[in-house]
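Hi everyone,

Forwarding the result from last night's run.
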Amino acid sequence: MAYKSYSMELAGRTLTVDVGRVAKQANGAALMHYGDTTVLCTATASEKPREGIDFFPLSVEFEEKMYSVGKIPGGFNKREGKASENSVLTARVIDRPMRPLFPKDYRNDCTLNNLVLSVDTECRPELVAMLGSAIATSISDIPFAGPCATTQLGMIDGKFIVNPSQEQWDNGDLNLTVASTSEKVIMIEAGANEIPEDKMIEAIYMCHEVNQEIIAFINKMVDEIGKPKHAYTSCAIPEEMFAAIKEIVPPAEMEVAVFSDDKQTREENVRNVTEKLAEAFADKEEWLAVLDEAVYQYQKKTVRKMILKDHKRPDGREITQIRPLAGEVDIIPRVHGSAMFTRGQTQICTITTLAPLSERQKIDGLDPNVTSKRYMHQYNFPSYSVGETKPSRGPGRREIGHGALAEKALVPVLPSEEEFPYAMRLVSETFESNGSTSQASICASTMSLMAAGVPIKKPVAGISCGLVTGDTDDDYIVLTDIQGLEDFFGDMDFKVAGTKDGITAIQMDIKIHGLTRPIVEEAIKRTREARMYILENTILPTIAEPRKEVGKYAPKIIQMQIDPQKIGDVVGQRGKTINTLIERTGVKIDISDEGAVSICGEDKEKMAEAKRLIEIITTDFYEGQILEGDVINIKEFGAFIEFAPGKEGMVHISKIAKERINHVEDVLTLGDHVKVVCLGKDKMGRMSFSIKDAQ
């Protein structure tokens, strides 16, 4: 392919795409430039389908290279290691809108790779990769029902900012990412500071309008340099097999099999149906190879027909009905906070751990504004939660994504460091899963934070809505609180979390080619109604407000402010003073560059002593000041008293006792604890102290 370059103005900056310049052996490649941000985006696919799979093997990578921001990676190897959390989350945001646009029966391995080469903080590389992946795939020969485009929106002081800079993204009230096709919205991801629903809808469709300009730009490229899409081997189930299945298991029988409010019962019914069909097809080896997929497709058609045409849900609920709810706190002893939230057969327990700010997570990434975070939310999904058995291999991309979504939902209601000087780690353990565990983890985490004594501003609840569509845009039904089966066989998983006053997080995934505006508006309306119900009927009755104090086993923290000029006095030469303080009192001490001091410990008396000593160290001596200290050195002319580590004063022999003494040792010995009064400066300009005048 000959080298060609295309440019457009996007949000006041020039977006340039170089094609045919590098990576010419990829099926599609785009060297993206937005400001000085440069990302190489490639799309490749195997020539043949992967055998023995029943899914589309799409892999998306977002490679953060530290040279892109002029840094050498940390650690011993000085080389980038496993993908960062930001890399994983960015890859997921690229995957989610694009995956439904590939053919459903496509089984060729496909990889979308995004290599970050340079970063201009005015132009976020994540957005450039999202656009580049869509462009590389659209101009390639890989079958794809695109193009699609992505826009990000921030908000500062109530004003929307299209494709904000990194600083605006980090400090604004809205982080919204919207992907669209030429007709519909296909993906929404948002973190927000309690944005009202109508404002959020306005923001979503502002992004959708910008996306249309980008799609027109991509279409021009496709028309000029796009490759013809290659043929592929379809992995669709033969129609004659479906016809045979329906004769053996009529639709009415399949409806009975899937119509149950108990997941285990339903799965047992489907197993029986599968065994019945396996016996019938014993002599058809090619059909047996795809029998599980065929039964899955039959279930899907049955469930979708029941919901869309008959308005019957598999567990018998009404369309807007939420499953039975339950909330508990303090279910685990000795931890700093715990809560369990149950919704039907979905059950999450979240444990809160509090620690000094020194234990916040350090981040070595491309964003210069974010080097650490004090709130960490992690989510685990063990196989037993769905009645399966497999070894634990650590968190996958789904687990990382769910933890990040819960974190995003709760950050807007957390107290500031000044109000609550703790690092917080929340771990959501999935005990049982049957739909929308990520939103259940938000509800459990709200209660766990309040039980731990974290003074959150407002409780947050989350819920998910589903969708089943027909043949036309106005033939659809939105489902409140989807369970697993409705998620698997439906067209949408629209998760929204927020307080009573507004939205704090959105994550929308779909399996179709987009949503109309009426569907988006109805889903947002439904999720608000459900959030209010969960807050009023489960969360607040379980724990109405944050506890006034942290728990018995949580570390206690005293805050104080010192003059930043005095930080060196507290730290001492090579940390000698602060280490002596820590050793003497058994506390942990954190000092910020602004002079904010946090004293952390379990013994309140020792914490108070540490605070007193720091006050002495950072306060200049003045006449009339009463102090206590220990004798640390004796000379012929007097004694040296240590009032705090690194803070000393001298008492002249004439100021030790009211009567005349010939030797200091006649009255004092090393280690004596004495009270003194400051007499002010002597003739030499030095501070003078007296023991006899303090009595």
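The first helix runs from residue 85 to 98.

Cheers,
N.
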